[in-house]
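Weekly structure sync, notes
Attendees: PL (lead), two postdocs, one rotation student
Agenda item 3: pending single-chain targets
PL asked that the sequence for the first pending target be pasted directly into the notes so everyone works from the same version. It is reproduced below exactly as submitted, 487 residues in total.
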Amino acid sequence: MNSKEFLENLIDDFNFDNLESFFRSKSRTFRVINESILTDKNNFTNGIKFGEFTTNETNPHELAVYCFKVNKPLTKRSGKKAQYDLGKRILKQEVRYSAGIFIFYDEKLDFRFSLIYDIPLSATKRDWSNFRRFTYFVSKDQTKKTFLKQIGEGDFSTLESIKEAFSVEKVTKQFYEEIANWYFWAMDKVEFPDDVEKDRGQRNAKNLIRLITRLIFIWFMKEKNLIPKTLFDKSFVDKILNYKDKTGSTYYKAILQNLFFATLNTQMKKEDPKSRIFVEEAEKLGYRSDAFLEQGYYRYSRFIKDKELFLKEFENIPFLNGGLFESLDKGKDLRVDCFSDNPKNETRLKVPDELFFLNEEIQVDLSNYLENGRNKKVTGLLEILNRYNFTIDENTPIDQDVALDPELLGKVFENLLASYNPETATTARKATGSYYTPREIVDYMVDESLIEYCRRIVPDSEMERIISDSEIVSPEIVSPDFVSDTS
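Predicted structure, written out during the meeting:
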């Protein structure tokens, strides 16, 4: 068995035998210790130093593996600070270890898998005050593909390669590349009305970027259980739709457009009984004689075979009252989003179902859009989103979930925006998304600028206290691939 298979066993059945097998598959030097550790019994029990191993490099590093059972059920957010503080305290005491892998598990055997290490002041001096923590939350109830790929396939032979296995930037870059490939694949498959934008390339680019931005925003809402995950499950959606749109775009029109415009940008029924009903019902009740450009009513009932199930799934989705989900259709029948129930507009909007539901990778030629764009692999957009873990907590340079956080929305938007901006299109073709500035670089630059400014107005003695009380950290060396000249 390889490391990834041992890791799959650990996820399916978390126990110390499977944990030992996994670490032995990662390092020939791993040895079990099983030494008890006294901890805060209010938060943790069964604390042990499970084992240790040595990296295989010119200047080897020793790492320890620690395990703790948490007293309360684990979630993506629960107990993170207490766990981080415990890990830092242990590493300060066990000074011979360069880093520690800390595993916190609960009664359900969900677990958090964290790497904690400090940043030395120099090659010979460590003060144990400057720590990093990178962590995976692993649950049987959510996707584990990122964890399996990063940790299962990761190299544990050096400390740097272990850090790479816990790299948020690597996951973000991989996600963006998959989204970019999907975007360029979709460019040749979609059609939007040309009432406002006559250039097809510009028109498709703008509408696809808007679609991606809307859907990623919704994905974070789904993480907060504000939008039911069933709306993105093909087997469930099949119970609602009949897939009779002439352009093969039933899902985009009947589910996504109704979600964007008639739900997220429309008051809930409990606030306005006239809202969130189908347009034909509104006309029967005399609310509107003509629902032209009125986005507050559901459309496309001819594509919906179970209206009752449809309305049940949508009824508790909140009203956001934000511009992102406002239909851009304009007066005098100028269509942009083309949120229209009129059959004459049916063939004017094409966003094929396969763009969302294709679940097997296919190879496509994107050389019209990307350098080295031949034989790129693509899948449906929902399949891509389902591969990754998302977190609603925005990461900081010193504490990061190895998951996609809300900052991702801006990165995707800005990077894709470059693809059709004439001034940046050439750069985008070459970079394919690998050129945003990492958060720790930005934070460090901001912190240092603020410190220099404060030195002018704050006494030196007070500045020492301010700096010592803060969590200002120096950035580690970052691959040039992630540093932008244009960010």
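Discussion points:
- DSSP finds 17 helices and nine strands in the chain.
- The CA atoms of residues 293 and 329 lie 7 Å apart.
Action: rotation student to compare against the earlier draft before next sync.
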